[in-house]
Amino acid sequence: MSILVLNCGSSSIKFTLYEKESGLIIHRGMEDRVTDYDQSLEKILSDLEALLPGGLLTLEAVGHRVVHGGRRFRHPHLIDAEVLEGVKSCTELAPLHNPSNIRGIEFAARRLPDAHQIAVFDTSFHTTIPPEAHHYALPVKIAKKYRIHRYGFHGISHGYVHGRALQLLGDMSEGRSGVITCHLGNGCSMAAVKNGRCVDTSMGFTPLEGLVMGTRSGDLDPAIVHYLMSPEGGAFTDEEVHDLLNRESGLKGLSGLSSDVRDLLEARSRGHAGAALALSVFAYRLKKYICAYHGVLSGADALVFTAGIGENSPEMRAEAVTGLEPLGFVLDGEKNEGVRGVEEEITGPGSKVRIFVIPTDEDLMIYRETVKIISAKR
Ligand code: ADP
User: What is the pLDDT of residues 58-115, one digit of tens each?
Assistant: First the structure.
C-alpha cells in the first residue's frame, strides 16, 4: 500500500508518494504555475498510476497540508463532512491558501473514494500558545467576533525540526527544554518551544507578520497602512496595499533587486548598497526575535535554522547570531561555513545554547501523521 502527500499551494502543487510500511519515497514531484487545479491533479494521478503496479487502488490514504485550521484543529484529522466544513469555515481567515487546499481535498475524495483523506494543519503546532501571546491588544469583543488572534504558520516545519532538535539534544531535553526554531525560506517565521509546547511564534493572524521575508514586509507600524491609503501617502487602494506588503516588500523591496538571498549576497559582494541594506535589515530583525524568544524561554537550550536560507546560507546564520555571544550563542565559524543543506551541529566552544542546522521535511511529517491516524483507526 502507499500514501500520497499532497500540498496544494496558491499556484503550485507539490506531492510525494510514500511506500506505506517503510516510509520510502516512491516519487516526488511538483506542478508549477497551476491555473486549473483539477486538470493538474488529474495529470498527477495519471503519472502516479503508471508508477504503482497495483494502480491507484493501492493508495490507502492521502495526507493534505492545510494552511489554516484556526484554533479548532489542534491535531491532524481524518476528513469527513464535518471536518471539511470546519476547514471551509477557516477559509475567510486564509483566503489565499485554504481554497487551494480544499480543492485538493475535494478532488481526492471524488477521484479516490476508497482512500482515507487526512488533513494536517500548519496552525496546529501553535495552538498551545498561551493567551498572553495569542491575543493582540485589541478590544476583546471585536477580536473574538472576527477571530483576530495570533495563529502562526509553518507549524508542520517547526514541529518537525523541533522534534529532531529534541533527539539531538538527547538526555538533556528530557523533562525541560527551550528550543528556538527559525524557518527561513521565501516565507520566514520563528517559534519558541518550551518543554515540547509552542509558546510563541512570529507570524500572526496572517503569514505577513514577523520577520523580513522574500517579498513580505513582516512587522510594521499598522498606521503605515492608513497613511498609504490617505491622499498624503499616495492614496493606495486596499488591493494595492495588500500587494505592496505581500509581494513588493521584504528583501525585494529593500534591495530594489531580488527576493533571493543568493542574488543579494552576490550583489553585496560587488558593493550593491540596496542588497547590503536588505540583508542587514533581515539579519537585524532575526536577531531581535532570537533575543526575544531567548527571554521568553528563560534561556534557550537550542537554536535551529531550517528552510532555504536557514539550511543553505552560512552568511545569514552567522549574521543573525554575531553579537549574541554574551547571551550564550556562540557559533563555530568554520563549521558553519561548510554546512549547506545537511543536518549538522554548528555550536562553537563555550556556547550555552546548542546551534543546529536541520533540513525541514514537511512531507515526511504529513506522511507520519497520516499513518498514525489510519493505524489508530483500525
Ligand atoms: P519556500 O518557502 O518557497 O519553500 P525555500 O525554503 O525553498 O522556499 O527557500 C527559498 C529561499 O532560500 C530562496 O529565495 C533563497 O533566498 C534561499 N536560498 C536557497 N538556496 C540558498 C543558498 N545556497 N544561499 C542562500 N540562500 C539560499
Answer: 899 999 999 999 888 999 999 999 999 999 998 888 877 889 999 999 999 999 999 9
Render pLDDT for 112-158 as a digit per residue (tens, 0 to 9): 999 999 999 999 999 999 999 999 999 999 999 999 999 999 999 99
Look up the CATH number of domain 2-121. 3.30.420.40
Q: For the domain with range 169-357, which CATH number is right: 3.30.450.40, 1.10.150.20, 3.40.50.300, 3.30.420.40?
A: 3.30.420.40
DSSP 45-86: HHHHHHH-TT-GGGEEEEEEEES--TTT--S-EE--HHHHHH
**Are the CB atoms for 347 and 358 separated by under 8 Å?**
no
Ligand 1 pocket test, candidate residues 161, 309, 361, 363, most atoms within 8 A of CB:
309
Residue ranges per domain, the chain?
2-121, 169-357
3-state helix, strand, coil in the chain (%, to 5): 45, 20, 35
pTM: 0.95
- Ligand 1 pocket: which residues have CB below 6 Å? 185-187, 214, 260-262, 307-309, 312-313
